[in-house]
Amino acid sequence: MSSMADPNLLVGASTSDDAAVYRLNDQIAIVQTVDYFTPVVDDPYTFGQITAANALSDIYAMGARPLLALNIIGFPVKLLSLDVLAEILKGGADKVKEAGAIVAGGHSIEDQEPKYGLAVTGVVHPDRVITNAGARPGDALILTKPLGTGIINTAVKGKLADGAACRAAINVMTALNDRAARVMSGLGAGACTDITGFGLLGHLYETLAASGVGGRVFLKEVPVLDQVRPLASMGIVPGGAYRNLEYLKEWLRWDKGIDDVDRLILADPQTSGGLLIAVSGGKADETVRALREEGVAGARIGEIIESDLPLIHVEE
Ligand code: CO
Ligand code: CO
Ligand code: CO
């Protein structure tokens, strides 16, 4: 159904946005999203935290504030102790609480493997919704978390990552995007999305397509977690990174010197990744400074350019 069907549906399915937005009145719109997945880490409490941070992230990516969350649970009750489930839910509830929101219920079914996620409802002023569609030529692109969690998670599964790499990835995946969202809303960002399964390049592509513009990415400015390059050089790369590059290939323009390892890192599927924010070029330095003051590792990684096609030029 198109958004034409109801003028109060401010953001629907047409722009690959992070969440749906529905205007209740002139002051308030509700923002709704749902996300769930199978465990990405062994520790159930940490898995719960990561899943909740990831689900909340879609609310933050719209410039909104989360209010309520409902758990979605699949669990193999005959195979695993209910203590495991309790730990997952505690991780989720603690993260939702950190976000200033409440877990208000949920639904569980018996399943072959654990699955956990949340449906989250937030609110935003209808005039302050930040979608994928508002990027304009001259905007700077700011990324708020380093890349590489997909590659590290793949290494962890193969017992090839050390403790430091593992901890770094968990720190990134459990971090809320709340402060990044506050900064971008305060500075009037034009567009935003969070980086998840399609990787930096895939989510940037969605923003460019929705906004009717092109983009440049400065490879050297893109923050990447330690150990990701050496792991990727050893071929430890999730299948999703290859699929993302394949899917995007007609839109990507690479400087000649950029090798396959860097291409895969830019397409690495992220779990609970950072926000990718488009803010007017004149406010870029102020945005990065404000993010750092909030303890967020914001980096200016590219810019929006005029283009009839959503092309991404990746430069050395
Ligand atoms: Co999203
Ligand atoms: Co999502
Ligand atoms: Co958005």
Comma- or semicolon-separated keywords:
316 residues; alpha+beta; 60s Ribosomal Protein L30, Chain: A; Phosphoribosyl-aminoimidazole Synthetase, Chain A, domain 2; seven-stranded mixed β-sheet; six-stranded mixed β-sheet; 10 helices; 13 strands; binds cobalt (II) ion
Can you give a write-up of this model?
With 316 residues, this protein is α+β, with helices and mostly antiparallel strands. It folds into two domains: 3-128, 2-Layer Sandwich (60s Ribosomal Protein L30, Chain: A), CATH 3.30.1330.10; 139-315, PurM-like C-terminal domain (Phosphoribosyl-aminoimidazole Synthetase, Chain A, domain 2, Alpha-Beta Complex). It contains ten helices and 13 strands. It has helices at residues 44-60, 82-98, 149-157, 163-174, 178-186, 199-211, 228-233, 239-248, 260-266, 284-293, and strands at residues 9-11, 20-23, 29-37, 65-75, 102-110, 115-124, 139-143, 191-194, 214-218, 252-254, 275-280, 299-305, 312-315. Strands 8-11-7-12-9-13-10 form a seven-stranded mixed beta sheet, with helices on both faces. The chain has a six-stranded mixed beta sheet with strand order 1-2-3-6-4-5, with helices on one face. Bound molecules: cobalt (II) ion (3 copies). One cobalt (II) ion is lined by residues 17-18, 61-62, 130-132, 192-193.
Overall domain count: 2
Which structural category do the helix and sheet elements fall into?
Answer: alpha+beta
Categorize the overall geometry: globular
**Helical amount:** 25-40%
Number of DSSP strands? 13
Main sheet strand line-up:
8-11-7-12-9-13-10
CATH topology of the largest domain: Phosphoribosyl-aminoimidazole Synthetase, Chain A, domain 2
What's the CATH class of the largest domain, please? Alpha Beta
- Main beta sheet: 7 strands, mixed
What value does the average pLDDT take?
96
Strand content: 25-35%
Question: Distance between termini?
Answer: 42 Å
Q: What is the chains' assembly state?
A: single chain
Poorly predicted residue ranges: none
Q: Look at the structure and name the CATH superfamily of the largest domain.
A: PurM-like C-terminal domain
